[in-house]
Each structure stands twice: as C-alpha cells, then as structure tokens.
Amino acid sequence: MKLSLDLTVASRPEWVAAVMSDFPAFLRDHADCERKASAMAMSFVAKYPDRVEIIPELIETGLEELQHFQQVYAHMAKRGITLAKEMTQDPYISALLNLCHSDPLRRFLDRLLLASIIECRGAERFRLVSNAIEGDAELKDFYHDLWTSEAKHGNIFVKMALLYFKKDQVYSRLEELNTAEGKIVDSLPLRAALH
Q1: Contact between residue 123 and residue 150 where contact means Cβ atoms under 8 Å apart
Q2: CA 3 to chain centre
Q3: Measured between alpha carbons, how far is 93 from 5 in angstroms, rounded to an integer?
Q4: pLDDT (tens digit, 9 = 90+) per residue, 32-76?
Q5: Which domain holds residue 158?
Q6: Rounded CA gap, 124 and 65, in Å?
Q7: Angle at 51 between CA 45 and CA 53, to 5 degrees
Q8: Could you count the other beta carbons within 10 Å of the beta carbon of residue 9?
Q9: Residue 86 neighbours by CB distance under 10 Å
Q10: CATH of the domain at 75
Q11: pLDDT over threshold 80, residue 2
Q12: Is the backbone of residue 101 left (phi > 0), alpha (psi -120 to 50) or beta?
C-alpha cells in the first residue's frame, strides 16, 4: 500500500534562485514553518483527543518539528540572523486550508491529507536547497537530513488517515488535493521562503 505521494508539479528552478539570493530570509521563514508544523501536530491532539490511535505519533511529530526549529535557530544564531518579529500568514498554507471541507469528519480527513502534501513539498524543497548549497557542508548536510525527515512525515499522515477512512476515499481525496496543490504552487509568487 502506497503511503507517500508524488507531487504533481515540481518546484521551479527560479524558486531555488530566489532562496539562494536571500538565504537569511529563507532561514527566518523556515524557522517559522517549523514552529507552525509543531503547533499543527499538537492542534490535531487538541482537536481530536478521542483519536487515541494517532496521539503518540502526533506528539512525536510535534517534538521532532520543534527540534527542527531548534536546529534552524542554531544555524541562524551562528550567522547573526534573528527570528522574525512576527510570524506572517503563509499564502500557500492559507490556499490549501481553503480546500478543506467544512463538515467535521471530512475536514479531519482533509487536514491529515494536506499535512501529508505539505510535508512532501517540504521534503522536495529541502532536497533542492541541499543540492544548491555550496561551501557550507554543515548546512548542506542539515538540509539533506531534513529532506529525509519530512518525507517520513508525509507517510505518517496518510497512514493516520487510513486508520479512520476507507482506502478508496483516502486516495481519491489525496489525488484531488494533490492536483489542487500543484496549481497553487504554480500560481504563487516566488519568494525566499519555504512555500
């Protein structure tokens, strides 16, 4: 049973160029994304406390994302880069959340599947960043390790969805959301940010 997904649209080389042209801004945004990812995992625990089968893995994921934030912050501190004063709204995430159904059960499925897609997009982009970094082996290795970690998280959320929903429903909706995500990625302006 396939738990991962293939993104429908690849990130453009121009996105990598935008990131590399302002890496401090990218690091700030990346730090914010890791904090938000940790909070998102814990929000599942808060909103769905009756879904006991997935709580341990959600806690583990939340802690891992918080550890990623700690690691990004260490790279920032070493370079004299401060955190952003405010976490701004992410247009990519906002557009994805607009795709969610409003009824509670289907919204739960959509949020799990979108979490999977977001993690897979993160994995793809961390791989691109790792490949583009020159002259800083430590930073290059860090983004390589993040790439493999994010790919694993994508699998976790699909696996969670399959605990509560029929396989056909999960994969059909995953395909719909994945196609919509590709259109969103293509429509957003390029910036030195993860999304």
Answers
A1: yes
A2: 16
A3: 18
A4: 999 999 999 999 999 999 999 999 999 999 999 999 999 999 999
A5: 13-82+91-186
A6: 17
A7: 105
A8: 15
A9: 7
A10: 1.20.1260.10
A11: no
A12: beta
